[in-house]
Structure formats: structure tokens, C-alpha cells
Amino acid sequence: MDKYEIVIGLEIHAELCTESKLFCNCAYTFGASANDCTCPICLGMPGTLPVINKRALEYAIRAGLAMNCDITTYSKFDRKNYFYPDLPKNYQISQYDLPLCKNGEITFELDGELRTVALRRIHLEEDAGKSIHAEVTGDPTRSFMDFNRAGVPLMEIVSEPEIHSPEEAIAYCRAVKEILEYIEVSDCNMEEGSLRCEPNISLRPKGSKELGTRTEIKNKNSFQELMDAMQYEVKRQARILDSGGEVVQETLLFDANTGKTVAMRGKEEADDYRYFPEPDLVHVQIDDEWIDEIQPSLPELPAERRTRFIQNYDISSENAEFLTTTRQIADFFDEAAHLSKEPSICANWIMGDLSRLLNTAEIEIQDSKVTPAHLSELIQLIKNNTISGKIAKSVLDDAFDTGKMPKQIVEDKGLSQITDTSEIEAIVLQVIEDNPGPAQDVRDGTKKAIGFLVGQVMKATQGKANPQLVNQILNRELSTE
Description:
The chain is α+β, with helices and mostly antiparallel strands. The protein has helices at 54-66, 134-137, 166-182, 223-242, 288-294, 302-313, 317-323, 327-340, 343-361, 372-383, 389-402, 406-413, 421-434, 436-443, 450-460, 467-480; strands at 4-15, 70-71, 74-75, 78-81, 91-94, 101-102, 105-110, 113-126, 130-132, 144-146, 153-159, 195-205, 215-217, 250-255, 260-266, 276-277, 284-285. It folds into three domains: 4-291, no CATH class; 300-413, no CATH class; 421-480, Arc Repressor Mutant, subunit A (Orthogonal Bundle), CATH 1.10.10.410.
């Protein structure tokens, strides 16, 4: 690999979360019974006509604006003719020479450095259905078609070939996914196929400006499989070139079981698809007023939010990365930090105990009964010494289960910290009397032994004694003796 430069361009397909399909009124539900989400239009029945979904156009414009694209005010749809067993019309309505968005860019971080990859275009097209083969049917001679997904609005985001490692490609894909989730145009659920990535990979001698022959790997809906596929394909092409052979331009599938790419078909060029303008749809005209309406509705994007969190809340870049994983987590942290005036403490609770509870319950933060107000109140109870940090964990668990506010839980269960010095002194003296060995160890200079005694006091008070007072009194009593 010292001899070659890797060149990768990416096509990312994102299903838009509109309520209906791109050219008809059918709703699409993942996992619905086969062919339940269909109508004469998406089944390609004779005499039916497509009608464009305006919300899908809006979502594509939102994505274009978020990714710094030029919005094409005059656009059109085209027929992409090809043999599509899973599209009943046997052509796909897509866009060819006049896409909705052009010339954008994606900026992301890799190994502590900012990278920018240019976008060539963003366009809309209808998704295909699903072919069900022998591994499901049990009959190698027959395949079945489920057209539920046929016609679902699909946004294709095409980068320039400016990516130079599989690791950079994954970082780019994650950045695109984050943006789409933040602007709420796609749920990007890769397990359900809402986001699929197709890398075009080629190698060229280092120092060369001419692109090598590329291959395309189809439909990867897992970042791990995408990484494995790209790494294998890079090595495969390098072996071919090292042996004096020529890479064949073709479309490949990646078999996760064998860890290898296999040929799917020879790679077609645009003219092989026989594009021509879609005669049943008028051209799309997008006026400046509509763009001006959409622009202010865009949220603060993840990269900008990370920068603000680091600067305004004085948290580390690693913590900012975690806290902007999703827009919902970022919103939660932002509000909790504002309410509590303790952003670092909020970050630790969210990344620690709250994340643990969410993972165990298998829910997202927006579905939790714990709100930013709960977290802020919990932090205030610790700050004013009403409860200890240990008790706070149990209070958070209770709030997560019941939705009660922390202050109410503390009052109902009598969890307030014991701060009465005389009461703690009596318990400390009893613990020293009951544990002469560890007490003598402390007197002899073994300071770590005091941790055992503190634990015994906390046990005797069911965790309600103020730990700082316990330490102070223990040290005083043992040093006095």
C-alpha cells in the first residue's frame, strides 16, 4: 500500500421520514405484511400517474441547506430505465442532469483534525421494493417480491472522490448521518435500511492525478460491514495491481460471512441506464421565498453545537462528542446545564448513570421519565448537602422508574443527609469501639484503613451521614486518642 493512494467517493441513500411515499399517498411501515403498503400507483398499474410529494422536496432542500449546497431553483425528474425486478414499472423515477442540490460540503473531525469533503449533488428518487430469495422461501427456483418499500422517497447524497482511507469514509458517513438526524428528515435507522452507503473505490500510484478504475460496493447498512468491505476491496485491488493485472470496473456485493467482495454485475455508465425526462411529472420550480422559509427552521447542527459546548460549558471535546451524539441528548444536556448552572456535573450524570439506565431499559433519552428539571434538582440536592452522591444514585433510579421529582423522593423516603455533628459523633465512637483493629491501624499511620471505618458509619446510617463530616470526626477522634 506504500505505492498507492486510496480514492473513495460515497453515495449515501437516506429514506425520508415523510408520512407517504414519493409519488402516491401510501404510508410505509417497516415490517408490515408483504405488499400491504401498496396502491395502483406504486404497483405501476397502467393508467396511473405519479404526483410529487411536496414534503419530500422540502426535506431535500433542508438537507441541501444544512450541507451548504446550492439549491437548484429549476429541477426535473427522469426515468432511469433498467431491469428492476423489485420496481413494477421496470424503471425508477430519479433525477439525472438537474438535481435539487449541487456543490455542498461536509466538514468532520478525524484524528483530531478537521476534514472537508465536497458534495457533487443531492437528488430525490423512489426506492425499490425487496426481493425475497431462497434463503427465506426455501425454494432455490423461486423468488418473491415485496413492493411495500417501492416508491418510498429516497435522498441520494453523492460526494466527490476526495476521501483517502476507509477510516475517513466512516467519519464522513457518520457526519452525514448526524446532520440528517438533527434536521429530522430521516430516522437513519441502518438496521431497517433507512440509511445505506455505497463506496466507489479505486487506487492510483502515489503522486498521480489520474483516477484509477473504480469498483462500487452496494448497499451497506452497517458501519462495521462498510469498513470491512472497504478494507478488503482496497487490499484486493492492490494485489491485482501488484501482479500486473487490471482492475475491472464493476458493481460488487460484500459477503460478511466470508469477508470478501463478489461481483454483482459489470458497472454501467449513465447512458446504459437510458435516462430520459419523466413525461408524467412537470418540472419543479423552487422560489427564493420557499428557501427563505426553510432556512430559519434549521436547528444548530452537531459540529456547531460541539464547538459551543466546549467554549461555553468548558467541557472536553470527548464529552462534547458524546453529548451531541443525537439532537435529543444535546437538547437534554443544554437545558439541564442551563437550569443547574453545573454543566460539567450534568455531563457526568448524563454520560454515566442516566446512560446506564437508558441502556438497561433500551429506550432513548427523549422517552425517559427523567427530564432536565429532574437532573437539575438532583444536582442542587447534592450541592446543598441534602443528600450524598451515593444516595443521589438511588434517587435517580427511583425518578427514572416513577417520574417523581428528586426532592419529593427524598422527602417520601426520608433520605436527607444526617448533618447533626453530635449524632454522627455517637455513631463514629460506636464504630471505633466495634472495630478496634482498623481503628488501631489508622492510629499507626495506615490511612487507607479509615475507608473501612467510613464504610461502617455509612452502613449504620443507611448512607445518610454526610461523608465529609464522617471523615473529619473519625480523623479527629483517632488522632485525639
